[in-house]
Amino acid sequence: MKDLLDDIYANIGLSPERGGVATYIPELAKIDPHQFGMCVAAADGEVYTAGDAEVPFSIQSVSKVFALALALGKVGDQLWRRVGREPSGLSFNSLLLLEREDGIPRNPFINAGALIATDIYLAGSRPKEALGQLLRFVRAASDDEDIHINEMVARSEIATGHRNVALAHYLASFGNLHSGVDEVYGTYCHQCAIEMSCRQLALAGRFLIDTDDTPKLVSRERRRRIAALMMTCGHYDGSGDFAFRVGLPGKSGVGGGILAIAPGKASVAVWSPGLNRYGNSKLGTEAMEMFARKTGWSVFG
């Protein structure tokens, strides 16, 4: 496995065609795009790394996996009354379907749906308390207390995320946001500003592997449901392409991270800040494609 990751790093991680960083978030625009890390946390406890796997980065929308798990833990299947389970076919921050579908987001991984998940785990708590719950979940999943929120990234997102504010107001206008817009939006931005390295993220993803030796933070049924949504919706309007090329459930973030799950085998994290046209890591996607091809791991057999 170590040789495979080194081969991926040599063939893909050093490619000159790296995509572009997320310039619409000022703090992310400063990130050096010439970084690449990858980590495999295997079901047997072994951990393999390559490249910049120890460098912390903003996980952004990868955090939606943990937020969804936390929201399901609070309200269970009642969550599906407020958010759907279908791919949107549109960009992650699109407003279009909210108007057409009466304020019910298509899935919990587009931004509108993620705001619902945030609203759910925020309910009855102050934002700091809710974020503390989320951090405790992530730290327990990774068995690592050294995971924190980057306040500068959070403030950068709060100051510039006008479309996400619009999404929150849209949800509120349909009665599908129960806490205040500012509270939900601020909590969501801080959630996205969680910083993790590839090693930490791969270890945190083990709770979805579904083996006897991995963290049991959610039920098996919920692990399967979260993985299904990662497969169908985890890469926004590029989800079909990722499923076709990689064949594993995955969740991307505009910080350049991807968390992928090989059920029963491993949790895989890859990071390269340059994005493709869907807002997913360009080299990260290519690395996962090569990884899946070389290992033969796929949910499709």
Automatic annotation (TrEMBL):
Substrate binds at S61, N111, E157, N164, Y188, Y236, V254. GO terms for biological process: glutamate biosynthetic process; L-glutamine catabolic process. Keywords: Acetylation, Hydrolase. Pfam families: Glutaminase (PF04960). Its EC number is 3.5.1.2. It catalyses: L-glutamine + H2O = L-glutamate + NH4(+). GO terms for molecular function: glutaminase activity. Signal peptide: none annotated. PANTHER family: GLUTAMINASE. Belongs to the glutaminase family. Homotetramer. HAMAP family: Glutaminase. This is Glutaminase. The lineage of its organism: Bacteria, Pseudomonadati, Pseudomonadota, Alphaproteobacteria, Hyphomicrobiales. The gene is glsA.
